[in-house]
Automatic annotation (TrEMBL):
It comes from Saccharococcus thermophilus. Residues 46-80 form a coiled coil. Gene3D superfamilies: Protein of unknown function DUF881. It comes from the Bacteria. This is Uncharacterized protein YlxW (UPF0749 family). One of its GO terms (molecular function) is RNA binding. The lineage of its organism: Bacteria, Bacillati, Bacillota, Bacilli, Bacillales.
């Protein structure tokens, strides 16, 4: 009888231990499954984040390439505008030079004044015309000044152009229809040293004028202002 009772106790103890093991195993399996589920969700989230990051990087590269292209286009446009400004500036300067050349623009600068006066002594009235300034004398001075680089010229303050005409009319000369009496002051804008040297070349204009009994005076000027050709003086 006692032996059977002991067997029941042992059997009960074994069942208890087995039950505890089953309970522990169930709880462990449940926790492990839960942990795996959490790990799987985390991996899925990481995967989704990684894919989003890759997509964003692709978009960034695309936008960067577009930015580089736009910057290149802007650079090309700036170069084109710079070239256009250069062309416009060049055209404006050329137009201004042409207006100055034809006498339509007021100009100022360094230059010289050449004064041509009739001879102070005339031996006889019969030879008086040999001692006064004629249009050819004025022409010689103007021509020499032009080929020496004069930018603008005026006679007694009247601007002349490439179309101007000068003729003698008795004791006076006419410049584009306007009469001027001696002395004739020819103003020229340009390099004073060059212009003076050109007039004083041996055997040149200065010697020819003196030979024709013309009194010549050349003065260097720091600034000469020449007005544009007025309509009344326009040929």
């Amino acid at each position: 009888m006692r032996k059977q009772k002991n067997n029941r106790v042992i059997l009960s103890f074994i069942c208890f231990i087995f039950g505890m093991m089953l309970a522990f195993s169930y709880q462990y399996t449940k926790k492990e499954a839960a942990r795996r589920n959490i790990t799987d969700r985390q991996w899925q989230k990481e995967y989704e984040y990684r894919q989003q990051l890759i997509q964003i990087q692709k978009e960034n590269r695309k936008l960067k390439n577009e930015l580089v292209q736009k910057q290149s286009e802007v650079t090309d446009m700036e170069k084109a505008l710079a070239n256009e400004r250069t062309v416009r500036t060049s055209l404006a300067k050329e137009a201004e030079n042409l207006r100055m050349y034809v006498g339509e623009a007021k100009v100022k600068g360094k230059g010289i004044e050449v004064t041509l006066s009739d001879a102070s002594y005339v031996p006889s009235e019969q030879s008086a015309t040999d001692y006064i300034v004629h249009e050819q004398h004025v022409f010689k001075v103007i021509h020499e000044l032009l080929i020496s680089g004069a930018e603008a010229i005026a006679i007694n303050g009247q601007r002349i152009s490439h179309r101007s005409y000068i003729v003698c009319n008795g004791p006076v000369i006419e410049v584009d229809g306007t009469q001027h009496a001696a002395p004739f002051i020819i103003s020229a804008i340009g390099n004073p040293d060059v212009l003076i040297s050109a007039l004083n070349i041996p055997g040149g204009v200065m010697d020819q004028l003196v030979q024709d009994n013309i009194t010549v005076k050349i003065t260097s000027k720091d600034e000469i202002v020449l007005d544009p050709i007025f309509p009344a003086h326009r040929p």
